[in-house]
Write a structure and sequence with these properties.
Blueprint (H helix, E strand, L loop, with lengths): L8 H23 L4 H35 L4 H13 L4
Helix pairs in contact: 1-2
């Protein structure tokens, strides 16, 4: 497989590295007996960070790769492609 990079990839990598650091902190919180509410809040933050990174990656891929693959199409087909990209935001 060839290298596949988008302009958003460095920002996504930074976001995931921050989430990785937060996850390590959560593990430490568990090991040191921090309150469950604190742990749950931090786990939620990690989960949101990873979810947002995934969403950004998928949307960027759709915006760039789908358009490149489909190429120039008739207006009604383009509306379908645009609708697909729009509905994917709800994933």
């Amino acid at each position: 497989m060839t290298a596949h990079r988008h302009a958003s990839h460095p920002a996504i990598a930074r976001r995931l590295k921050r989430a990785e650091g937060h996850l390590r902190s959560v593990i430490e919180m568990i090991e040191t007996g921090r309150p469950c509410l604190d742990i749950a809040q931090q786990l939620h933050a990690v989960e949101k960070a990873v979810s947002n990174a995934k969403r950004t990656l998928i949307h960027d891929h759709l915006d760039h790769c789908l358009d490149r693959t489909v190429g120039a199409v008739a207006a009604d087909t383009q509306r379908s492609v645009d609708e697909f990209k729009e509905i994917a935001k709800y994933l």
